[in-house]
Specification:
With 108 residues, the protein is an all-alpha fold. It has 5 helices and no strands.
């Protein structure tokens, strides 16, 4: 399924952890919003072409206004979607940030 695919997979480059981070960002986006990345696409090959052009899905800015957890998740998802894999967090950093977001739940 598309939500588990990252930009570089379409470029045929070496697979690594940062590609999984991109995919995890897609999964978090789907969980948060209930939407699939590029939900308007009917042709399963269309998202791949859009990703090759550097496009990515987006999250409605209103999610940032829902609360601390949502704002933290949106920021994390956008970091996971960084076009260049070296700009993405590691999975360890993703886990730490998720824990920080959840730990602050009671203080917001």
């Amino acid at each position: 399924e598309f939500s588990e695919i990252d930009i570089e997979e379409y470029k045929k480059s070496h697979l690594d952890e940062r590609m999984e981070v991109f995919s995890f960002g897609n999964i978090m986006m789907s969980i948060l919003t209930g939407n699939h990345p590029f939900p308007e696409e009917c042709d399963p090959k269309s998202p791949a072409k859009r990703i090759q052009r550097g496009e990515k899905s987006w999250i409605d800015a209103r999610w940032r206004d829902e609360g601390y957890i949502e704002r933290g998740l949106v920021d994390l998802i956008h970091d996971c979607w960084a076009f260049h894999r070296e700009d993405r967090p590691t999975m360890g950093q993703v886990v730490r940030r998720l824990r920080e977001i959840l730990a602050r739940k009671g203080t917001s």
